[in-house]
Amino acid sequence: MNKTIITVVGKDTVGIIAKVCTYLADSGVNVLDISQTIVSGYFNMMMIVDTADAAKNFATISDELDQLGESIGVVIKCQKEEIFQMMHRI
Amino acid sequence: MINIGEVLETNEMVEKENLDVRTITIGISLLDCIDSDLQKLNEKIYNKITTVAKNLVKVGNEIESNYCIPIVNKRISVTPIALVGGAACKSPEDFATIADTMDRAAKQVGVNLIGGYSALVSKGMTKADEMLIRSIPIALHRTERVCSSVNLASTKTGINMDAVKLMGEIILEVAEISKDNDSADCMKLVVFCNAPDDNPFMAGAFHGVTETDAVINVGVSGPGVVLRAVEKVKGESFEVLCETIKKTAFKVTRVGQLVAKEASRMLNIPFGIVDLSLAPTPAVGDSVADILCSIGLEYAGAPGTTAALAMLNDQVKKGGVMASSYVGGLSGAFIPVSEDQGMINAVEAGAINLEKLEAMTCVCSVGLDMIAIPGDTPATTISGMIADEMALGMVNQKTTAARLIPAIGKKVGDQVEFGGLFGYAPIMPVNPFSCADFINRGGRIPAPIHSFKN
């Protein structure tokens, strides 16, 4: 298990989740959990994914998601889970 | 499992509140480079630094992208050069060649500053110490990235007043030699009482002789994050305020701990310490003075400032200590003038003066930091200001420091511009009365009575 947190923030539009999930499926990344919320009019989505069996390395996935985000008009960030575990769990 | 609120909170800290890791600093021992031949010594120093720190910048960038957390600086500290160069250097110029080597090595590995052009003279100066100190003006002037520090006093040894006197003169020389550039070389020189061996922050970082061969020290920051948290509890009691600061400091420090462990693993260099400091930058909202205002002061410097700062500093430590397995360095709030927009505002409003800043240094880390004073301030007066700061550190058993910038050709009302992270600073008035007879006595001030604990 190699957990990574993907966040998508931007203006809500049709097909954001579909596009991100299609990319992840094509890259061999398994989605463990998805949650989303709207904060002051902005679409916020968080996905917990497992990149252990991914066909690409972390840097490539991160770069490609960044580009995908640009094409949809949202910001997509890819972060290893430890930073959140460290900050929010004792 | 991590929830979306937690993820958004962390990312907001980075994106809106300037949360960052201020520095990953590799401490490198140069004791095994010692040689009586100056050329060989320089070669060994260059090779050691460029070998040990070869991957520092690459690893720093990789950690940045893995966690989306900015790591602002990657730096190096080395063994105090007065110890390393003593056998080979016969003149201040010989020492300056080592500074050239350090500068070259820093550029080769891509770090923005390298510290350790230092001497530890809290009780007495060897010939090598004195030569190094006398070489500081030329060494800082002809290098770009080298930082220098001198430890002048400690609780155990008292204050070396000969060295305090000499440093007053040297600081003026450093200012004079860089007068075309607003005396900016002074930013790279700091004097200490009780200097820590594992400080990752510049200009005062050096790799102490009690340290291992190489070590990773990390300095975290986050005044913006603390500021935002304090703003949310406006009007609440001290209990609520303190809890809020503590929790925030915990979170900020955890990021530093993670980065330090990761850097240590990836570079295969042992982890030393996390330095829990609130280090401000001129960016809007990234100010320690603004936190003080948010706690309830009109300006930093208003009555109550020392108490507010003492409380802030203590809560940052209490939150931070639990977040990291090893805490060290300076660990406390920095109160530089030029690097903190809120502090600059306080000076310009007439809310804060040198004497109040000195009082504040009794309860936080560092001391009179990045303070521009008139260029015609006598060397003995600068020594007097340093001696006061050393006395505070000595008696209170804490680190204190002075980084003063006598701006040659400028007077009160003018300002000096350094640009970037260093910002600008208004020239502050200095007490005009003389302390020359006091400084010129020579010798040292004995250690205080409470240092005799054996």
Please provide a brief summary of the model.
By secondary structure, chain A is α+β, with helices and mostly antiparallel strands. Chain A has helices at about 15-25, 60-70, 80-90; strands spanning about 5-10, 30-40, 40-50, 75-80.
Key words describing this protein structure:
heterodimer, A: 90 residues, alpha+beta, Alpha-Beta Plaits, 4-stranded antiparallel beta sheet, 4 strands, 39% strand, globular, B: 454 residues, alpha/beta, Anaerobic Ribonucleotide-triphosphate Reductase Large Chain, 2 domains, 11-stranded mixed beta sheet, 13 strands, ACT_dom (chain A), UPF0237/GcvR_regulator (chain A), UPF0237_ACT (chain A), UPF0237 protein CSX02_07290 (chain A)
Please tell me about this protein's structure.
The complex is a heterodimer of chains A (90) and B (454). Chain A has a single domain (3-88), classed as ACT domain (Alpha-Beta Plaits), CATH 3.30.70. Helix content of chain A is 37%, strand content 39%. Chain A contains 3 helices and 4 strands, in the order βαββαβα. In chain A, strands 2-3-1-4 form a 4-stranded antiparallel β-sheet, sandwiched between helices. In chain A, strand 2 and strand 3 (42-50) form a beta hairpin. Chain A is globular. Chain A starts with a strand and ends with a helix. Chain B folds into 2 domains: 22-193, Anaerobic Ribonucleotide-triphosphate Reductase Large Chain, CATH 3.20.70; 219-447, Anaerobic Ribonucleotide-triphosphate Reductase Large Chain (Alpha-Beta Barrel). In chain B, 44% of the residues lie in helices and 17% in strands. Chain B is built from 15 helices and 13 strands. In chain B, strand 9 (368-374), helix 14 and strand 10 form a beta-alpha-beta unit. The mean pLDDT of chain B is 94. Classes of the chains: A alpha+beta (90), B alpha/beta (454). Chain A binds chain B through residues 5, 7, 33, 35-37, 39, 44, 46, 48, 58-59, 62, 77-88, and chain B through 1-4, 6-11, 62, 65-69, 251, 254-255, 257-258.
